[in-house]
Every structure is written in C-alpha cells, then in structure tokens.
C-alpha cells in the first residue's frame, strides 16, 4: 500500500521473476511472478478505481509504436525457473498468459482454483489459508509460488504445499514489499488442519497468511471448494498407497484432515518388498515417530509386527531396497526389544529368524542406552543400534 504507479512498475522491472505489476487509485501495488498470473481482464476503458497493469516481456528488434499487436509473436524466456517461457495471448476481453515448461504435460497444468473434471490423474487446488497446523514438513527452495506448486505436483509423496512471504525493502529503502519465498511441502499424514481464506482480494502474504495447494484426484467431481473440503476422498498418488482414504471435515472455514491406512492382506503391492527364499515381506514407513507408535502403526495396516532381520543376506537385500526408494540416511525401528537395559535382546517375531549374524555384528551398537532397536542407515555399513 502507498506506492505510486511509477514506483510499482519500477519495482517489477527490478525483480527478476516479476512479469506483471498492478496498481489502482488507492496506491495499492501488487506484483506477480512467473506463473502466478493467468488471465487479466481487458477493461478497454478506465475503471472507477483507475486499475491498470504493466507487462514485462522481452523486447524485440521491431518495437511497435502503438500498443495494438504489441504482444503478437513475442516469447519471453526465463532462466532459473521451472517455466521455460511465456507468451501473452490477446483477445477482445482478456489478456492470457500461456506458459511452456519441459517439466509438465497438459495434465500438469491443472493448477486452478477449482478442479477441471478431466482424465488427468491429479490436479492441484489452490487457495489461501491461515492457522495451519502440522506435525512435520519439508522446506524446499522455490523462487515463485508456481514453482512451489509444480514441485508438489511432480513429487509423489507431496500431498500439500504452502508458501508464505518475506519482506523485501524497495530500491529507495522506503516501504517493504512482500514476496513469497519459503515453500513447505507436506505428506498426507503431516498436515492436520488449516483455515481457508475466501477473500480473493490482494493483500500481503506474511507468516500468518499463506498461499496453499492440495493435491486431489481429477476424477472427483464436482471440483468445487464446498465439495472438496467436506467428505472422504480416495488416495491414489503413488507414495500414498499405504493410505486407503482421507477425510476433510470443514466447520465454518476451519478444515481438519484425517486419514485411514490401507490394510495389507498380501505381499503384493506398492511399497511392499519380499525377501528372497523367506516367508516375510516388509515396507518402509518414513515417519518420525517413537517405537510405540511404530508398533501400533504396524498393527493398524495389518502387519504381524515390526520386522525381523533373518540373516546377513536379508540385511543386504533390505539395504539395497532402502537405498533405491529412500536414498538419504535414517533410523528405522525393527522388531528387536528388551525389557530393561540389563536384559537380553529378543526378537518379537522369533519364528522368522534364520541366524543371529546381524545381531552379533551389531553387538557393540546394541550396548547403548535404549530398549528398542533400529536399523542404522547413516553409515557405510547398515547395523542394528539401540534406541530410546
């Protein structure tokens, strides 16, 4: 607020990823980054609020002397963005941005406020939110909100993403501008609740207010806010195969998320792996939980218990699988416990054991404090380690 039109245009010109500036008689200045604006109304005559926009695009050798036809055939390219280029399409009533990216297909372009009921397997519903509650998240670098949405769309395990703003002082060191800079991505069971903001008007995005997007199946119709934010929805986005469904319950503007685990009935399916020459299959659950919750989670999905490590050969197979699906390190609970730190370690599923080689090679690490054991994938050699 309080920025003259000329200063607003200059700010957009100076910011690398800004492609459109908006201003009005109230001295409101709104800047739009690459991908963050799709369609602009062409008033033809000055509106009562004296609304105006300024487009930033690559100049050509033959710069037109009049605005008519100014955008024809002009392609603006970008470096450092998931969008390769943009083009402005002019019609009688609208200016429309057409974006080109090598990262997405036409289905991947379904980033709309309301879902297009199409044959695409997924779409991103966009809205604004506040009072967001969660148990965990992953911070990603994204230069624009569109890039944040696109990263979530391309990432199987990403169910939702949000982006909040950061202040940036204007070139003349006066009023600060708000630009979205921090992209946070959530798995389905990490996002708990949020409050959707229905006001579509422009205002600063701060740590309290955020842009937000949730991934839905495009086969769900009608794709309206009212329908999507009330009821049960199937989960079919790759990484989420261990969840059968999730429910969004909205009271007023507050929406809470609950999820149900997919029951495991056979050793076939995504995220389930079989040990060769052994009657045991297992899965990795990348969740930061204590042992009691890990054991309870195993029962919920229909498992017999936290897995045993039957032999050294099996450990090598498990290590290869883990590296292929989760290349970063970590600790994963297994079914090896003891009553107290003076007691012997015991497998919770002893019938699945072939030998004690893995236990013996981990003897020193199991002397540490703790009543539960995990597979330690942080070093070169995978071993068992005591955990509290």
TrEMBL record:
Ranges of residues in domain PAN-3: 3-55
Matches recorded under Pfam families: PAN_3
Name this polypeptide is given: PAN-3 domain-containing protein
Source species of the chain: Caenorhabditis nigoni
Gene expressing this chain: Cnig_chr_II.g8099
């Amino acid at each position: 607020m309080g920025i003259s039109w000329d200063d607003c245009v200059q700010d957009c010109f100076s910011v690398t990823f800004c492609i459109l500036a908006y201003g009005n008689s109230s001295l409101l200045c709104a800047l739009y980054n690459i991908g963050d604006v799709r369609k602009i109304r062409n008033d033809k005559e000055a509106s009562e609020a004296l609304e105006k926009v300024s487009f930033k695009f690559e100049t050509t050798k033959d710069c037109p002397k009049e605005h008519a036809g100014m955008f024809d055939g002009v392609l603006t390219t970008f470096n450092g963005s998931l969008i390769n280029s943009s083009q402005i399409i002019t019609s009688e009533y609208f200016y429309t941005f057409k974006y080109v990216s090598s990262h997405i297909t036409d289905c991947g372009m379904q980033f709309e406020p309301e879902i297009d009921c199409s044959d695409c397997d997924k779409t991103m519903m966009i809205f604004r939110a506040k009072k967001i509650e969660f148990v965990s998240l992953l911070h990603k670098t994204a230069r624009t909100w569109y890039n944040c949405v696109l990263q979530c769309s391309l990432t199987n395990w990403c169910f939702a993403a949000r982006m909040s703003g950061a202040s940036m002082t204007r070139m003349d060191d006066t009023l600060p501008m708000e630009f979205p800079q921090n992209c946070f991505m959530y798995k389905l069971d990490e996002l708990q609740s949020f409050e959707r903001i229905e006001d579509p008007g422009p205002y600063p995005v701060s740590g309290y207010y955020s842009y937000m997007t949730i991934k839905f199946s495009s086969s769900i119709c009608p794709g309206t806010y009212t329908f999507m934010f009330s009821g049960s929805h199937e989960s079919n986005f790759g990484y989420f195969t261990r969840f059968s469904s999730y429910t969004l319950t909205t009271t007023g503007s507050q929406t809470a998320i609950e999820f149900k685990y997919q029951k495991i009935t056979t050793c076939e399916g995504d995220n389930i792996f079989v040990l060769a020459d052994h009657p045991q299959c297992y899965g990795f659950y990348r969740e930061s939980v204590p042992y009691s919750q890990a054991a309870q989670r195993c029962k919920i999905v229909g498992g017999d218990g936290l897995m045993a490590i039957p032999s050294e050969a099996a450990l090598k197979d498990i290590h290869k699988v883990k590296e292929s699906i989760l290349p970063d390190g970590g600790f994963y609970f297994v079914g090896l416990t003891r009553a107290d730190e003076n007691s012997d370690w015991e497998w919770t599923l002893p019938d699945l054991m072939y030998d004690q080689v893995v236990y013996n090679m981990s003897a020193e690490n199991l002397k540490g404090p703790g009543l539960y054991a995990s597979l330690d994938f942080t070093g070169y050699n995978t071993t068992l380690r005591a955990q509290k």
